[in-house]
């Protein structure tokens, strides 16, 4: 054991850091934040944060746009809850010193530049040039590290939660760099571990989460919702030899055009909103164009915007592409869809609470009802901020903890070779990318179900025999979540939002219903 902490937060992206700062004035916080969090989804959020800030905008418009993008599956109450709390969250970030890009244009009705992204009917995305996530994360991290009531542990990796006989969460089991098991007990535990895009081969983040937090919560009995709705960002830089790099939706918001190998725009014939259609529509259109042409990517063209506008709006993207030998002022950008954001996750209330007492979840790991079947651009960081602040308000009034006996986590003492773990992970990613990606088919989902079950059986045996290992624990959580995702996809007999199956009719269910999963839905593991 290692102490008995007040609030334990697992994950140090925007959601985790925001919660820590809001909790720390009332309760002592320990934040488990591995160094890899600096390369997670928050840092790579380029576009910005959607909020009603301009006098020309209003809450109803933002709510409506979000509901349309969510393709009928959003919880309207959760959407309005989030949207109406957006301006206050932005004001809080400004008070911390986040250097949002100012609007110096004559007649500007808001001091900071607002861009427009896919699905939005107005300019409402506040940003820090084209590196918003990095700027927000760095600001929050600096404040958290300076706060006397926040202990940041960047030397630990959480591998599971601690439960007791009463079904309550009592903390987490972690490993340090030497492999020593450390149990952090806590009165309240909060998951801010990110999504599950790491289940796929191509992602928009160098170190994507693979649903570890979702699986950990499910181990204690939490319900997982809407796992089949995995968003693929339409425009990731296509470079098989280099690391993933997202090309922000703001590039299309400022006028970027998608073209095929013949130099022709194809989005206007697909949707009246063209390049600014919701992400599920744009990603499917790109995928269809690639299938039609046999090419491995399409192009995103910004040359017509001119060098001054490109350098002004997209300095990070321009500079990064130059390091990869691509001058976007003179050349179109090769792009391909890549796994980006999980719209499903741990079912929570509007305060981050789960069905497991003393366990909360915020950010991408959670499913609040905001995103429905497809997340609208730049609503993600908004959700992180709003629900972290809401969860902090709940945690300001702690409830009595259980005194039931803890449930032990058995483990062996064998060692599994890193190469074998890596091979298993690649096999999982290949299966998910082949059968459970932008377009799914019944036969492919059936094959994925069986092959993932076989893979899980191999990994389960290794888990029972081996000593605690962070890579193996991550893989075990990931493969079980992959299996639950396939179960959810097979069960949804309609095409809706991010779940597109040509073997199912569009919007067959009226009214739509969320898909609900528990670990008990799996036959093994």
TrEMBL record:
Catalytic activity: L-aspartate + O2 = iminosuccinate + H2O2
EC number: 1.4.3.16
Gene3D superfamilies: FAD/NAD(P)-binding domain, Fumarate reductase/succinate dehydrogenase flavoprotein-like, C-terminal domain, Succinate dehydrogenase/fumarate reductase flavoprotein, catalytic domain
Keyword entries, A-Z: FAD, Flavoprotein, Oxidoreductase, Pyridine nucleotide biosynthesis
Annotated ranges, domain Fumarate reductase/succinate dehydrogenase flavoprotein-like C-terminal: 425-505
Pathway: Cofactor biosynthesis; NAD(+) biosynthesis; iminoaspartate from L-aspartate (oxidase route): step 1/1
GO CC annotations, alphabetized: cytoplasm
GO process annotations (BP): 'de novo' NAD+ biosynthetic process from L-aspartate
Residue numbers spanned by region Disordered: 494-525
Compositionally skewed regions (Pro residues) per UniProt: 503-513
Co-factor requirement: FAD
Main location: cytoplasm
Subcellular location, record wording: Cytoplasm
Top-rank lineage group of the source organism: Bacteria
Keyword Flavoprotein found: yes
GO molecular function: L-aspartate oxidase activity
Domain called FAD-dependent oxidoreductase 2 FAD-binding: residue spans: 6-381
Pfam family, one: FAD_binding_2
Family according to the record: Belongs to the FAD-dependent oxidoreductase 2 family. NadB subfamily.
Function: Catalyzes the oxidation of L-aspartate to iminoaspartate.
Identification of the protein by name: L-aspartate oxidase
Lineage: Bacteria, Pseudomonadati, Pseudomonadota, Gammaproteobacteria, Oceanospirillales
